[in-house]
Amino acid sequence: MQNLLDFDAQGLTDWFAAQGEKAFRARQVLRWIHRFGETDFEAMTDVAKSLRAQLHEKACIVPPVPVRDSVSADGTRKWLLDVGSANAIETVFIPETGRGTLCVSSQAGCALDCAFCSTGRQGFNRNLSAAEIIGQLWLANRLLGATPNGERIISNVVLMGMGEPLANFDNVVAALNLMLDDNAYGLSRRRVTVSTSGIVPAIDRLREVCPVALAVSLHAPNDALRDELVPINKKYPLAELMAACRRYLEKAPRDFITFEYVMLDGVNDLDVHARALIALTRDVPCKFNLIPFNPFPDSGFKRSRPERIRRFGKILIDAGIVTTIRKTRGDDVDAACGQLAGQVVDKTRRTERRTVALMEAKS
Ligand code: SAH
Ligand code: SF4
């Protein structure tokens, strides 16, 4: 059975062609699935009866299954989705005045092991399929409904949930294509953001195939510290990352890169770090988004104090860099950045290795 949620427009057209069906039929079905949220081929009334019967036989439309729905006091909503084999992922909806943002996951777990991230702490199980990625938007649209004047509630999508999107490149791009497609969700490139820890060759590929807005998780102003906090830095150090950001801007829908910077008390939040960031990013038009660290058990880090974050931000602002401090949303339901853990069966057995390492360190 082919899950049609796995296809972007091109994929569906190719699959239809293989069944001897024309491209406009694929577009019709794409609209039914993504615009109208239909899962029943019988309800697709403008599709020929014979084709409906054929689809019924060979295909299905199966989104991930929500197993928990939590609503935070601030209106943030978090869904836990079952993706089989004891793996669960999380999707978060953040309502704000004038816009609604859906934060989407791209992997069950993450292999990159950033020191301050609870998803990284769990280890990696597998890439999500395109159906599981776009299925989060499909499902959230259905569960949230529309505004009283019929508009969709989700206006922006950020790939900032569990996982490293650029480590699951093809499936993420198929899902991005659907987000942008007028026959599907029709979002503008500016309203779709991929957040990456900095996989340089994949940033270049994204620029070529689907340049949406880009956020880069910087977290440190020099290689020595970044090697510790974001281990992928050892492979793609800062000079290469900054060069990739400059190249990306040639095609980006916005004229700046967003640098995310988690504020870790006493680790990366001193004035000297802020000044080094100004020098590092001198040739990269950028905005900074400072994220107060969201704690999780045994993380070993503390959140910087609010006045420290403000002062750090002021140093950047005084140097002419637009800087915002991310509001912590949904932390009462563990929906804040870096708190998304779902439940992942760790194929890398990272947790086990870490426990052993901790025991060795203690003895
Ligand atoms: N893997 C991608 C996207 C997912 S994480 C990336 O790393 O960019 C989304 C953002 O949350 C990243 O900037 C990430 O570094 C940050 N983050 C991770 N753990 C966090 C924590 N405990 N507190 C605050 N932000 C965190
Ligand atoms: Fe993976 Fe991003 Fe977490 Fe790093 S911060 S471990 S890349 S999800």
Summarize the structure.
36% of the residues lie in helices and 19% in strands. With 363 residues, the chain is an alpha/beta fold. The chain has a 10-stranded mixed beta sheet.
Main sheet makeup: 10 strands, mixed
Lateral arrangement of strands in the main beta sheet: 3-4-5-6-9-10-11-12-13-14
Q: Stretches where pLDDT falls below 50 for ≥5 residues? A: 355-359
Note the quaternary state here. Answer: single chain
**How much β-strand is present in the residues?**
15-25%
In total, the number of strands is: 14
What is the radius of gyration?
A: 21 Å
Q: Which shape, going by the Cα principal axes? A: globular
State the helical fraction. Answer: 25-40%
Distance N to C terminus: 53 Å
**Helix and strand succession?**
EHHHEEEEEEHEHEHEHEHHEHEHEH
Secondary structural class = alpha/beta
